[in-house]
Amino acid sequence: MSARLDLRVFVQNDFGRGGVPVSRSFETWVRAALSGRRRGRTGVNIALLDSDPARELNLRYRGKDYATNVLSFAYEPAPREKSGLLGDLVLCPPVVAREAAEQGKRVRDHYAHLTVHGVLHLLGYDHENEREARKMEAIERDVLAGLGIADPYN
């Protein structure tokens, strides 16, 4: 019998319920992204924000003046701090819904993809160059396939 991951996901929804998955769905997607981990930091906070506050965060932390689909903020514990927090994700429901419509995807599947994508960033994966992008996208495809979700890049 395999050990079960001690996962902690907190979802703060400042946007409202319209079209937003329930907390349990986000927990499922975070768990899938962390598949294979048996220890280490596994706490993830997820904030769902409207376009204006999401744009402000993107401008402040990335220097880009628009609301983006997902932002990831990895948590760096202080020396000798025992924290289970891996980091924070910020998702912007209006952007997620718009992108899903433009790409012909189910909104729920796009939320799953962006949640997995964000968690991989918290784990240190990136897509700043072609090699890193291929590696990260391959992991995303595998995780999403395990959830019954089609390749988000095709």
Please explain how this structure is put together.
α1 links the parallel β1 and β2. With 154 residues, the chain is α/β, with parallel strands linked by helices. It is globular and about 45 Å long. A 4-stranded mixed β-sheet has the order 1-2-4-3, sandwiched between helices. The model has no long low-confidence stretch (mean pLDDT 91). It is built from 5 helices and 4 strands. The N and C termini lie far apart (36 Å).
What level of helicity do the residues show? 40-55%
Biggest beta sheet summary: 4 strands, mixed
Q: How much of the residues is beta strand, in percent?
A: 15-25%
Average pLDDT over all residues: 91
**Helical region count?**
5
CA-atom Rg in angstroms = 15 Å
The topology string of helices and strands comes to EHEHEEHHH
Stretches where pLDDT is under 50 for at least 5 consecutive residues are none
Query: Order of strands in the sheet with the most strands?
Result: 1-2-4-3
Helix/strand class: alpha/beta
> How would you describe the shape?
globular
Give the topology, please:
Layout: E1 8-13, H1 23-33, E2 43-48, H2 51-62, E3 70-74, E4 85-91, H3 93-103, H4 107-122, H5 130-146
Parallel strand pairs: 1-2, 2-4
Antiparallel strand pairs: 3-4
Helix pairs in contact: 1-4, 3-4, 4-5
Q: Tags for this entry?
A:
154 residues, alpha/beta, 4-stranded mixed β-sheet, 5 helices
Task: Provide a concise account of the structure shown.
With 154 residues, this protein is an alpha/beta fold. It has helices at residues 23-33, 51-62, 93-103, 107-122, 130-146, and strands at 8-13, 43-48, 70-74, 85-91. Helix 1 packs across helix 4, helix 3 (93-103) crosses helix 4 (107-122) and helix 4 packs across helix 5.
